[in-house]
Each structure stands twice: as structure tokens, then as C-alpha cells.
Amino acid sequence: MSTKFIVMHILLLLLFSFSFGTSSYGGLLLPNSTTSLISYNQDYIVGKNILLDVKSINKISSHYISFPNTITVGVFDYQYKTKLYKINSSISIINYGDFEDSESYYTFSSNDYILKNSFLKDLNKNIYASFDLKYLYSEIDIYTSSTLLTKFSLFYHHQRFLWQLFVDNYGFILNDYTTYNDKTPVSFGYNFIFTPKYINSIISINYNIYEDYDVFNVSSELFLMKNSSVMFGFSSLSKDLYYGEFYNDFLTGLSFSFNSKYKNYSINLGFKNLGAVGTSTSFTIQKSLN
């Protein structure tokens, strides 16, 4: 492995070490929407629609998420329904910014491109199954890699409760950056969401287990009026972001979003406090097509 590649690799790992583990494919763990930034659950909308029995309609959405260290995520997705499946097709572009070697002043950049198709099918009135197929193409300067990955989920809906069990990022690497055998960030876990009896809201709890760490997240969406809501979230990732002083750490790991609908449009703004590392911000706009 060349010295140049080692330097690039270490820089990228440092960017993700604060919350996304040590895999070179950490981009797979980044949120793809405002709601997933707050809830740490990329299937939150799927579960919410099942729980509230929302009628399926065709939609297009655009999401933009910014992280510290000039990392940005842009996502465009299209939700539609066929005779057998509810499908969400998306493309994500992750830009990690430009890097410069302080000794040679050599400049390079890194990007990830993710194509994903999600298929949801109801097996009966209480049980649903989903399958995601993801293709990731990654480039670090002149080095490239690609992976083909899957996610399997099983949902069980009973009255005001919904359980989801899943296995994510299971697949194989088509070609690696070098001869070094890297691994994808495989995880498994559960999501549990429910609607309280006397409060117009949704509470979500999820737990993700990775090879060398786990993540617990709790969030709540409170419906203010017919067309607006606010969402709050907290992640156990915050324990790795603490600065060491109570007043600096008090709000670390907390997140907030505001969602509003007008006619066929929906806008969602989100913020996540990463403590001394900085703040993540997110913007989503969605249009209903029918």
C-alpha cells in the first residue's frame, strides 16, 4: 500500500471516527434525509406510514445535509407504487471535501455515490417485509471501490405499536481500493415506534449493533397542527463527543427538526448538535405527485 493512500485513508477515518466507526464505507451510515438525521432510522417514514395507515402516493424528494469538516450529502428520491410493491428509488452523492498533504501540498478529493432501491410489501394486515438493494461507488483520489449490499427488514404492526427487525449492509465488495481486505459496516437491530394514547405524537426507539460498537437512539415527533410537526432526538453517540465540561456537553447529541406542509409540498429543516465537533444541518423538500 502506497504512503499516499495511507495518508488519505487515515484522514477519512478521522472524519468518521467521531460517530461512524472505522470502516472505509462509513458513508453508508450517514443519514439520507432530515428525519433520519434526527431519528437515526432510515426507515422512520416507512414505519410511520404503516403505523398511521397513510395512503401511498407518488412523491419526489430532495435532501441536503451538511456535516462538520465540509462533508455534504445530497439525495434525490422517488417514491411510487406498483401492483405488488411500494418502491423508493434514490441516488445519494456524498462529498468529503478537498484534502491537502501538508508536506507535498498535494491536493485530492473523495466522493461516494449510492444507488438504492427499496421494496416494501404487505404479507398480511399485520406483517410487512422490505428489501433494499444498494450499490456504492467510492473514490479517493485515483483509488476507487464498489460494493453491492442489501438490507432485510420485517415489520409487525399491532394497533398503536410497530416493531421492525433488520439486517443492514450485508453483501460483498466488488472491488476494493487496494489489496487490503476492508469490510462493510454490517449491522442488525430493531426499531420500535408507537403512538401514545393521549398525546398526538410518535415515539421511536431504535438500537443498532455493529461489529465493535452499538448505537441507541430515541426520538419523538409531536404533531402541532394538521400540517406541521416538530421532532426531537437523542443519540448515544453523544458520549463519544463530550468535551468534558457539563455546560459544553449538556446539549451534545440532541437534535431538532420542524416540518410543514402546504398543498402538495412539504419542507423539513433539521439540526443536530455534535458538541465540540460542530453542528449538522439538514433541509428536505418534497412534492406529492397525485
Low-pLDDT parts are 1-21
Radius of gyration: 19 Å
Please state how the strands of the largest beta sheet are arranged side by side: 1-2-3-4-5-6-7-8-9-10-11-12-13-14
Q: End-to-end span in angstroms?
A: 53 Å
Looking at this structure, what is the CATH superfamily? monomeric porin ompg
Structural class: mainly beta
Question: What's the number of domains?
Answer: 1
Supply the CATH class: Mainly Beta
Task: Count the DSSP helices.
Answer: 4
Q: What pattern of helices and strands is seen along the backbone?
A: HHHEEEEEEEEEEEHEEE
For the biggest sheet, the summary is: 14 strands, antiparallel, barrel
Describe the protein's topology.
Layout: H1 3-16, H2 34-39, H3 44-51, E1 59-66, E2 72-81, E3 86-100, E4 107-122, E5 127-140, E6 143-158, E7 161-175, E8 187-194, E9 201-209, E10 214-225, E11 228-235, H4 246-249, E12 254-262, E13 265-273, E14 279-288
Antiparallel strand pairs: 1-2, 1-14, 2-3, 3-4, 4-5, 5-6, 6-7, 7-8, 8-9, 9-10, 10-11, 11-12, 12-13, 13-14
Structural commentary:
The protein has 290 residues and is mainly beta. It has a single domain, classed as Porin (Beta Barrel). The protein is 11% helix and 55% strand. It has a 14-stranded antiparallel beta barrel. Strand 12 and strand 13 form a beta hairpin. The longest helix has 14 residues.
